[in-house]
Amino acid sequence: MLILSLDTSTAACSVALHKDGTLLGCYELFTERTSAAMLTTLIDNVVAQAGFSLSQLDAVAVAKGPGSYTGLRIGVSTAKGLCFALDKPLLAINTLAGMAEQLRAYYSSDYLLCPMIDARRMEVYCALFSTSGQEVAPTSAHIIDEQSFQDWLTKSPVVFFGDGAAKCQALLGQNSNALFPEELVVPSARTIGKLATEAFAAGAFEDINTFEPFYLKDFMTTQPKKAVL
């Protein structure tokens, strides 16, 4: 099972290649506006340097969002183009689930993980995951205030991370159950590919003709509504 994964959900751009769930190679760039210019080059390099050709892929996976409108459009368009050209299936993974996967091994079952992507002003895209990988609060656009996540914080420690977490730390940082890792966690194709391996085994393929990124567009084009978390 050879899977190429792409993540262009934010300013970071990454591609990864997994074989039977094992990471063979990964390229990550963190320069603004790199996705469109460098994505094809990164794809060619990671596949060739692992000793394979694009025709040997079994599937292409992409981070479906939420995230940057432009970044998601570039990533999904590229993934769909590869699938059409190579006649390969498409897998789509929630960007926040991929971020949570980066930290799952570092916390016990007592903790909840809350990946956050900066949206605008005091708004973030976020979700809550258990350390077993279960989504316990769905992906939403949430306007941060002093009452955010209070129901969850009374029950267990919550780890807030990602480029949207700074907004939350300023308001919730005094709560002993609100934890903020020092290292910035950014979306990465490394964990998109890991989750895509599981999706492939489950046969969770997308319809290439109709698939669209998960923009959370209602929140971007209308007045944001506060999500209850």
From TrEMBL:
<dbReference type="Pfam" id="PF00814">
    <property type="entry name" value="TsaD"/>
</dbReference>
<dbReference type="GO" id="GO:0061711">
    <property type="term" value="F:tRNA N(6)-L-threonylcarbamoyladenine synthase activity"/>
</dbReference>
<protein>
    <submittedName>
        <fullName>tRNA (Adenosine(37)-N6)-threonylcarbamoyltransferase complex dimerization subunit type 1 TsaB</fullName>
        <ecNumber>2.3.1.234</ecNumber>
    </submittedName>
</protein>
<dbReference type="InterPro" id="IPR000905">
    <property type="entry name" value="Gcp-like_dom"/>
</dbReference>
<keyword id="KW-0808">Transferase</keyword>
<dbReference type="InterPro" id="IPR022496">
    <property type="entry name" value="T6A_TsaB"/>
</dbReference>
<feature type="domain" description="Gcp-like">
    <location>
        <begin position="32"/>
        <end position="137"/>
    </location>
</feature>
<keyword id="KW-0012">Acyltransferase</keyword>
<dbReference type="InterPro" id="IPR043129">
    <property type="entry name" value="ATPase_NBD"/>
</dbReference>
